[in-house]
Amino acid sequence: MPGQESLKTPSLGAVVSVRGSVVDVRFDEQLPPIYSVLRAGDKAQIVIEVLAQLDARHVRGIALTPTQGLARGMAVQDTGGPLEVPVGKEVLSRMFDVFGNVIDRGAVLSDFELRSVHQAPPPLARRSTKSEIFETGIKAIDVLMPLERGGKAGLFGGAGVGKTVLLTEMIHNMVGQHEGVSIFCGIGERCREGEELYHQMKEAGVLPNMVMVFGQMNEPPGARFRVGHAALTMAEYFRDDEHRDVLLLIDNIFRFIQAGMEVSGLMGQMPSRLGYQPTMGTELSRLEERIANTDTGAITSIQAVYVPADDFTDPAAVHTFSHLSASIVLSRKRASEGLFPAIDPLQSNSKMATPGIVGARHYGLAQEIRRTFAQYAQLKDIISMLGLEQLSPEDRNVVARARRLERFLTQPFFTTKQFTGLDGKLVSLEDALDGCERILRDEFKDYPESALYMIGAINEAKGKSKPGPSTAEPKSRAKADLTSAAKATPEPHPIPGAKPQPTLEHAGDAHES
Ligand SMILES: Nc1ncnc2c1ncn2[C@@H]1O[C@H](COP(=O)(O)OP(=O)(O)OP(=O)(O)O)[C@@H](O)[C@H]1O
Ligand SMILES: [Mg+2]
After folding, report:
1. How much helix, strand and coil, in percent to the nearest 5, is found in the chain?
2. What pTM does this model have?
3. What is the pLDDT of residue 468?
4. CB contact at 8 A, 62 and 48
5. DSSP-assigned letter for residue 161
6. Which residues contact 123 (CB under 8 A, 6 or more apart)?
7. pLDDT band for position 433 (cuts 50, 70, 90)
8. Active-site residue numbers?
9. What is d(CA 304, CA 302) in angstroms, rounded to the nearest whole number?
10. Interval between CA 155 and ligand 1 midpoint (Å)
11. Which H helix or E strand runs over 267?
């Protein structure tokens, strides 16, 4: 075990109190500095990180392991160093916990260097300032909120709107093409998902350039609080020592904030707004600031952000927003309509979406798509009160375009094939832009809306069904097996031709808001 090697300084202390994960320890000789790792228990299995020096004799720390069996008066050993994780080429293709122990049942590491998980962010002078687009192959993202190479993107959403699915799809699409190293960090989410991802990556053959680090929901708050730092330390090694580009994927950064909140109360701090810790801003920026580009390599990061109760004004969400260069907001309403990925284009944004970076054509198109969606959102109220017939022909056209765009921006995913029965599609930016442009030019006015639903490039709509409301051919039954959400709502219709196509008039009536 790497952590045990540093058991050298003899400074011994004794437990004064244990409150859940927070442990107070008295040291009579030398007080361990902040971030020191202490060990207790008969096999030194209980690990505590010092977070505060209470007075000249006492420190308060947070346990990174369960504290069962820890009692007042028990001896505590100061290891004389901070929490360290292994870095180096050997960590590739392996799976770790917060202590840097391998958890994939493989052989223990032999050739590695240990590095403290607490590092300073790169100084401003070393940061790189070039802006480059990072293509994901997902239409809605590449067109409307392009990601930045070396940037930080957030996938925001409440429970069960598709954050993990979208993140996994991005891993699937990008890890293969990405020449650098990918690091996946699971914080406080389901253990099952970690296990599944590991096997998916193994099957896809991308594991040799990947590292996984997990501190999942079954682990104590201390472990969830530090696992992000552990993953970042490995990422920094590849960026700074090997000069490689790193893709850092985090599911879920909210759980990091939540772990901080869990310990903060026990540490005796007064809660701030909504019970969050007063130090949330500092804790988050200490982690986020380390995710940076330098002239030698870039860390591109994609982070899922759970939004409690779908409230985007929640302090945790607001703080996270401020660190990101692109925010992708997933909406429950879209998910319930079966419009996956459930990205809300009007709430999402990217600082890369400027004409200087994406070019005039792409920028103009993205603006026009947003305008169409915004007009549609305004017209929805009128439609639900008066019906589509009351709209002017002009407005009806806007609605038709917006609904076709909405459907065209859905996409079947490789990672959801088991439950949608649809083959995944990777769409180039050029194809995605082309499709949107042609829809905006009303080229697909006579096609049923469902012809554009869950396709890849726009030409597939032509193969899928011909213009005219009733000429669509029924497709195989397998495709009917979409998500239950998609089935529950009358439209968008996953099976072209199985029911009469939703004409614009029906569609307007059916629309509830
Ligand atoms: N692109 C998609 N295509 C089809 N179904 C999807 C898609 N994205 C999400 N779903 C459906 O939504 C469900 C929940 O997705 P997911 O687990 O990604 O949510 P989540 O936001 O990560 O939730 P949690 O906050 O609980 O972690 C999936 O099991 C699937 O049924
Ligand atoms: Mg999830």
Report:
1. 40, 20, 40
2. 0.85
3. 53
4. yes
5. S
6. none
7. very high
8. 163, 189-190
9. 7
10. 12
11. none
The closest alpha carbon to 235, from 198, 175, 183, 303, belongs to 183
- What is the percent of the chain with per-residue pLDDT over 70, rounded to a whole number? 88
List Cβ<8 Å contacts ≥24 apart for 504-508.
504/388, 504/396, 504/399, 504/400, 504/403, 505/388, 505/389, 507/388, 507/403, 507/449, 508/383, 508/387, 508/388, 508/389, 508/391, 508/399
Pairing of strands 147-148, 133-134: antiparallel
Contact 213, 184 (CB under 8 A): yes
Mean pLDDT computed over 46-70: 94
Q: Are 7 and 79 in contact (CB under 8 A)?
A: yes
Whose CA is closest to atom 16 on ligand 1? Answer: 162
What is the residue whose two structure tokens read 């772990």?
259
Q: For the segment 443-454, what is each residue's pLDDT rounded down to a tens digit?
A: 999 999 999 999
Ligand 1 pocket list (CB less than 6 A): 157, 159-165, 189, 306, 340-341, 413, 416, 420, 483
Whole-number pLDDT of residue 128: 83
Tokens of 138: 């997902």
**Do 376 and 395 touch, CB atoms closer than 8 A?**
no
Evaluate if residue 455 carries a pLDDT over 80: yes
The protein residue with its alpha carbon nearest to ligand 1, atom 12, reads 162
Helix (H, G, I), strand (E, B) or coil at 259: helix
**pLDDT tens digits, one per residue of 2-30:** 444 444 455 899 999 999 899 999 999 89
How far is the C-alpha of 146 from the C-alpha of 300, rounded, in Å?
Answer: 13
Query: If residue 124 lies in a helix (H) or strand (E), which one and from where to where?
Result: none
Q: How far apart are the CA of 339 and the centre of ligand 2, in A?
A: 18
Q: What is the 3-state secondary structure (H, E, C) of 330-362?
A: ECHHHHHCCCCCCECCCCCEECCCCHHHHCHHH
* pLDDT value of position 387: 87
